[in-house]
């Protein structure tokens, strides 16, 4: 046993922590394979399987599946029945691993985000040397899909039933029929949900990323709301085609190359009685307070995407933790907003704000 006085005990404790982090990284790597290939969903729907049975059900290579099943069992994601030789997913694991867009689903939040940035990794290393950014286009379609999957539970389970009841003026305006603009709309899920819930509204989504606009347009068509929702390739900071009754941004403002300019554009794009709904990161004003597991996740996301994408456009580079409540309030007042109200939402990841003129 190592002596507590020879100076090695703290180093060994930290070594244990790093090893634990590495264990987690390997579990996430293997889980990402299961997520992207639909293995968790298959086990949840079709039940326990041997590696041979799973290969037959999924038409994937048995040898790889055998290794993956053993790894997931070692990590505690699956269980193994030695008598039957079958691997199973415990019922309590199903909502976390297999229920897409569910309130507890973590596939997109962790598996996608942790494994979809390999192509941009070397570009990020070069950005550390040059101080420049990494273009959004370099991240590719899979990163866009990861963001879409990550944010989906907000719109499926929070936007209409939880957040809007806390904003009665906004909800009443939507019920009567409003002109709505979602800036940084991505693949359009927020506007589609609003269109389905409030059929008298006219809605437009803006995004700089052309593939997102194409996907959003198709998603709206498939949802049957394409006649009331349109999507345009447009940089919101350059001005909005207003005036609008309601403008929204969902996890967009801190990523913007020009967040101050975007806030001014949103201010100018609102009707006098309009409302701006801003959903952004729940973080502390001081960096030294963004510590522990959530702080680690937020700074990891920031380095992987938020910071380099903003800097690539010569932007402010706020980073994921760059827009805490205090900073948002100061920037909003400077942009001309009269009131910033933070909603009483208990969400470890998001703050929800209602801004008015």
Automatic annotation (TrEMBL):
- Would the keyword Magnesium turn up in this protein's UniProt record? no
Which GO terms label this protein's molecular function in UniProt?
Answer: methyltransferase activity
List, for all copies, the residue spans of the domain called Methyltransferase: 176-282
The residues covered by the S-adenosylmethionine-dependent methyltransferase Rv2258c-like winged HTH domain are 29-97
- Per the UniProt entry, the Enzyme Commission number(s) are 2.1.1.-
The UniProt entry, under InterPro entries, shows: Methyltranfer_dom, SAM-binding_MTase, SAM-dependent_MTases_sf, WH-like_DNA-bd_sf, WH_DNA-bd_sf, WHD_Rv2258c
Keywords assigned by UniProt, alphabetized: Methyltransferase, Transferase
| A GO BP entry | methylation
Origin superkingdom:
Bacteria
Reply yes or no: does the keyword Transferase apply: yes
Which EC class does it fall in?
A: transferase
Instruction: Identify the CDD domains for this entry.
Output: AdoMet_MTases
- Name of the protein this chain belongs to: Class I SAM-dependent methyltransferase
User: What species was this sequence derived from?
Assistant: Nonomuraea roseola
């Amino acid at each position: 046993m190592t002596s507590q006085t020879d100076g090695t005990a703290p180093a060994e404790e930290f070594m244990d922590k790093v090893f634990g982090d590495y264990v987690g990284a390997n579990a996430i790597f293997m889980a990402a394979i299961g997520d992207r290939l639909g293995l968790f969903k298959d086990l949840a729907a079709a039940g326990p399987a041997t590696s041979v049975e799973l290969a037959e059900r999924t038409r994937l290579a048995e040898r790889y599946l055998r290794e993956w099943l053993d790894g997931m069992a070692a990590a505690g994601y699956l269980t193994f029945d030695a008598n039957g030789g079958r691997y199973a997913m415990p019922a309590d694991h199903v909502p976390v691993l297999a229920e897409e867009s569910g309130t507890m689903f973590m596939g997109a939040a962790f598996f996608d985000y942790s494994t979809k940035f390999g192509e941009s990794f070397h570009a990020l290393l070069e950005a550390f040397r040059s101080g420049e950014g990494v273009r959004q286009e370099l991240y590719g379609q899979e990163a866009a899909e990861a963001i879409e999957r990550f944010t989906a539970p907000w719109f499926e389970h929070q936007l209409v039933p939880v957040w809007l009841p806390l904003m009665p003026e906004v909800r009443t305006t939507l019920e009567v029929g409003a002109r709505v603009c979602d800036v940084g709309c991505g693949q359009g899920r927020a506007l589609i949900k609003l269109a389905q819930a409030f059929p008298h509204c006219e809605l437009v989504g803006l995004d700089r990323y052309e593939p997102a606009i194409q996907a959003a347009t198709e998603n709206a068509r498939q949802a049957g709301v394409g006649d009331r929702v349109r999507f345009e390739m447009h940089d919101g900071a350059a001005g909005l085609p207003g005036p609008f009754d309601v403008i929204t941004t969902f996890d967009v403002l801190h990523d913007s190359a020009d967040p101050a300019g975007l806030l001014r554009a949103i201010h100018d794009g609102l009707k006098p009685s309009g409302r701006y709904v801003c959903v952004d990161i729940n973080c502390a004003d001081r960096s030294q307070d963004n510590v522990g597991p959530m702080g680690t996740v937020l700074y990891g996301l920031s380095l992987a995407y938020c910071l380099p994408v903003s800097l690539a456009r010569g932007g402010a580079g706020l980073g994921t933790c760059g827009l805490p409540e205090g900073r948002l309030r100061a920037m909003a007042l400077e942009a001309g907003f009269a009131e910033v109200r933070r909603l009483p939402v208990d969400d470890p990841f998001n703050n929800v704000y209602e801004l008015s003129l």
